[in-house]
Amino acid sequence: MALPTLPRNASAASFDCDRPDLAADEKVICDTRALNDDDVKMVTTFELLSGLLAMGSRGAMQDEQVEWLKRRHACGGDADCIRAAYQERLKQFDEVYNNLNRPL
Question: In this structure, what are the phi and psi dihedrals at residue 45, rounded to the nearest 5 degrees?
Fold first, then answer.
């Protein structure tokens, strides 16, 4: 399946696509519209959840994000691996959101 590509001057939500030292995973994200969209959704959701969580939970989520970024980076230029990494992380964010304590 061919994925639509983006012009090189586009930026993903979590990094600058015009940086000369992009890693292989970042290049694929910048060049693939669906992965770029996943990156935008991931970073937006991360920021929203960070604002809703207590400090300890926020720190834990930030630590998890660092570990997740390492796993995504390990995908290199494999778009399917990157896509699966985003799906996994967004599912984790859904679980965090669904488990938030809300006033009745």
Answer: -65, -40
| C-alpha–C-alpha distance, residues 52 and 23, integer Å | 31
Q: What is the pTM of this model?
A: 0.82
CA dist., res. 48 & res. 92, Å (int): 14
> Residue 97 contacts by C-beta under 8 Å, 6 or more apart in sequence?
45, 49, 52
Residue 10 · residue 36 · CB < 8 Å: yes
What angle do helix axes 79-98 and 33-52 make, rounded to 10 degrees? Answer: 20
Average pLDDT over residues 86-104: 87
pLDDT per residue as tens digits for the range 24-56: 999 999 999 999 999 999 999 999 999 888 888
